[in-house]
C-alpha cells in the first residue's frame, strides 16, 4: 500500500481550534501530515513566522505523524517535493468554498495529480 502524504497549508496567525480539529481528523486518513506555514514577507501578521511555527509545534506534539514546515512560493511545488498527493483545506462557510474552488482550479492546472480535500470546520 502506498505511503500517503497530505499537506495542510495556511498562515496560522495564530493556529485555532478549527485548525487543530482539521489536523487531528486528518491524521487518521493519511500516513503523514505536513502543516505548511505560509512565509509571506509582504503580509505583516500578528505573530512572527517563528512564533507561529512554535505555537503549531507545541499544539501538535502529541500527533506523531504531523510535521510542521514553512514554505513560500507555489504550494504544488512543495507537494511535489515531499510527495504529497492531497491538499487539505478547511471550510467554514459557503463563501470559503468559492474562494477555495478558485485555488483548487489553479492548482489543478499546475499539477492535475494533486487533489484537494475539503473538511468542514
TrEMBL record:
Summarize where ATP binds, as residue positions.
Answer: 11-12, 19, 90-92, 100
Coiled-coil region(s) at which residues? none
UniProt keyword Cytoplasm present: yes
Q: Does the keyword Magnesium apply?
A: yes
Chief location of this protein? cytoplasm
Tell me which Pfam families the record gives. Answer: CTP_transf_like (PF01467)
- The residues that the entry says bind substrate are 11, 43, 75, 89
Q: Where would you find this protein in the cell?
A: Cytoplasm
Q: Which InterPro entries match?
A: Cyt_trans-like, PPAT, Rossmann-like_a/b/a_fold
On subunit structure and binding partners, the annotation says:
Homohexamer.
> What is the designated name of this protein?
Phosphopantetheine adenylyltransferase
Give the originating organism: Staphylococcus aureus
Amino acid at each position: 500500500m502506498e505511503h500517503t502524504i497530505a499537506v495542510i497549508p495556511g498562515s496560522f496567525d495564530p493556529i485555532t481550534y478549527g485548525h487543530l480539529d482539521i489536523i487531528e481528523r486528518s491524521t487518521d486518513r493519511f500516513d503523514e501530515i505536513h502543516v505548511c506555514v505560509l512565509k509571506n514577507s509582504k503580509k505583516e501578521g500578528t505573530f512572527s513566522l517563528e512564533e507561529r511555527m512554535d505555537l503549531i509545534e507545541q499544539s501538535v506534539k502529541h500527533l506523531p505523524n504531523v510535521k510542521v514546515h514553512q514554505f513560500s512560493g507555489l504550494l504544488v511545488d512543495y507537494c511535489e517535493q515531499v510527495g504529497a498527493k492531497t491538499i487539505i483545506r478547511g471550510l467554514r462557510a459557503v463563501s470559503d468554498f468559492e474562494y477555495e474552488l478558485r485555488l483548487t482550479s489553479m492548482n489543478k492546472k499546475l499539477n492535475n495529480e494533486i487533489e484537494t480535500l475539503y473538511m468542514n470546520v
